[in-house]
Amino acid sequence: MPEFCDIALPVPLEMTFTYRVGETAPVVGGRVLVPFRTTRLSVSSTALHDTPPSVKAKNRLITAIDVVPVFDEQLLKLGNWIAQY
Questions:
Q1: DSSP secondary structure of 46-63
Q2: Which residues are bridge partners to 60 per DSSP?
Q3: 35: part of which helix (H) or strand (E)?
Q4: What is the pTM of this model?
Q5: Helix count (H) and strand count (E) of the chain?
Q6: Domain ranges of the chain
Q7: In sequence order, which residues have a C-beta less than 8 Å from that of residue 12 and are 6 or more positions away?
């Protein structure tokens, strides 16, 4: 199981955030529940990997909401293209 998960948060920054994977394994394109500031957010996971981030990883994921992806590979690719545009 990968150690880290990149997620897309609804904030005006051109980056994803890296969280440590908790006990429930997320899937790429599935929703996860994460702590962010003083709240919890339901967001989409964009990548799973074992590469430590250059900055300290955020807290652990609270839980994986979906066991199958909500966004398929083509939709994630489109979203990534839109984000880069």
A1: EEEE-PPPSS--EEEPSE
A2: 20
A3: strand 31-36
A4: 0.84
A5: 1, 6
A6: 4-84
A7: none
| Residue 62: both structure tokens together | 């609270």
Q: pLDDT in tens for each of the 85 residues of the chain?
A: 899 999 989 888 888 899 999 888 899 999 999 998 899 999 999 999 999 888 887 678 999 999 999 999 899 899 889 888 8
Locus of tokens 């690719």: 77
CATH architecture of 4-84: 3-Layer(aba) Sandwich (3.40)
pLDDT at 58: 66
* Residue type at position 20: R
Tokens of 59: 């807290």
| SS3 call for 36 | strand
Length of the chain: 85
